[in-house]
Amino acid sequence: MNRLKHSRRCIVAAALCAMxxxxxxxxxxxxxxxxxxSGTIRGKWEWQPERDETRFEVRTARVALDGKITPTxxxxxxxxxxxxxxxxxxxxYAGMRPLQGWALRIGQMRVPFSIDAHRSPHKQFFANRxxxxxxxxxxxxxGLYGSYRFSxxxxxxxxxxxxxxxxxxxxxxxxxxxxxxxxxQYKPWQGLTLQAxxxxxxxxxxxxxxxxxxxxxxxxxxxxxxxxxxxxxxxxLFKDVNAWDAFVCYDLPLHRAFRKVSxxxxxxxxxxxxxxxxxxxxxLKLTDAERQRVTGGITLSMAKEMNADIRLNxxxxxxxxxxxAKPSELDKAVVELVVHF
Length: 341
Prior knowledge:
Layout: H1 2-26, E1 36-48, E2 53-70, E3 73-83, E4 86-96, E5 102-110, H2 131-136, E6 140-149, E7 155-162, E8 179-189, E9 192-201, E10 208-219, E11 222-233, E12 241-253, E13 260-270, E14 291-301, E15 308-319, E16 332-340
């Protein structure tokens, strides 16, 4: 009887091993070059109390493919199917990491400049970007990028040379003066990041130089950030632009429906700004009027990191000349749902 039980146990064990082997053999082994799919969806509702008008908007519908061909060769392609209602190609580059600490890329990408302008939509703290991130320092271009992370010092240097044409105007675009951008990021101790950057762009109105500096401090539940940008026009008829952005965020952990709730406040401002386009008389065109803004907000986070958030914001604008205010840049309440996958 004991021998019979022992035989049965052996048969069952052998059968289980065979089944495990079969399952293991059927498990797909993906090639190293297969892309990782990610994306961000942002839907929002806004209300302007002065006009008593509302709107719904799909602010972002990004899909990205990125991966590695080998441990040292990488790629990324990202498209936004609804950037304020328009389809835009964002990133399209191939890269290499030839040596420890080094990274090289060629293609279209966000240029290394600014703090807030470099954040992806799901990593933003507020529903609407700062003036620095939206109007002044937001540049993507086609070119060559390189970075180096020091091994013995908490310092990263980034730099690049770019066409100034963007992805849609490359075929017949030739220039004798490339644009450039450079950025340094230093972390003297845990929680504190200091950044400084410089950039040259060449819009229709002539060469323009941008200088940016700021810091980010994360201490426990607190995040504090301040950033300053100066935009200098070589055209003496248009005054240089000064832009500021400062915010504070406090995270309160929760343990039920939401993982945490964040309380936020921001102040940002900018002077009269031109994006480099020209008027009919050939002078720089005023594209954004001088203004200040105060934003208060609450963010309810439903997942780890910033992968599923409800953002509740109220923005109060202050104009020197209210007649120059754009329809979408007036006092408003914003409710936004952000999902990142």
